[in-house]
């Protein structure tokens, strides 16, 4: 097994296991290649979306994103929302998730966010606490 490489998502990840990994997070059917490539181009370089993957030996074994939100509070500051973190079951506990989260958190700091937040299931809290995230408040959701 090679070393973990955390990098921005690219169009070739479509065939490197990206959607198979996403299936381990939630029901996520593979979208058509053209849809994926168009969306990827739209978010590349816009400064608000940072989609990253963890690659090992040419395969995607993890992915996640950072969404940057402009606020009116905190002098019109920026907040980073870490979203959709998932690592393939066979790579969990080996540092892939930590490497991905460090890269996304570092990007939030780099672009000027005053904080980064994320939502997770209760059983994942210990992992995120090990990565220096703190429990704060409660998540609420309204599904449509």
UniProtKB/TrEMBL annotation:
Any keyword Acyltransferase?
yes
Highest taxon listed in the record's lineage: Eukaryota
List this protein's GO terms for biological process: UDP-N-acetylglucosamine biosynthetic process
Catalytic activity, as annotated: D-glucosamine 6-phosphate + acetyl-CoA = N-acetyl-D-glucosamine 6-phosphate + CoA + H(+)
The name this protein carries in UniProt is Glucosamine 6-phosphate N-acetyltransferase
MF terms in GO = glucosamine 6-phosphate N-acetyltransferase activity
InterPro entries, per this entry?
Acyl_CoA_acyltransferase, GNAT_dom, GNPNAT1-like
Q: In which pathway does it act?
A: Nucleotide-sugar biosynthesis; UDP-N-acetyl-alpha-D-glucosamine biosynthesis; N-acetyl-alpha-D-glucosamine 1-phosphate from alpha-D-glucosamine 6-phosphate (route I): step 1/2
UniProt organism field:
Rhodosorus marinus
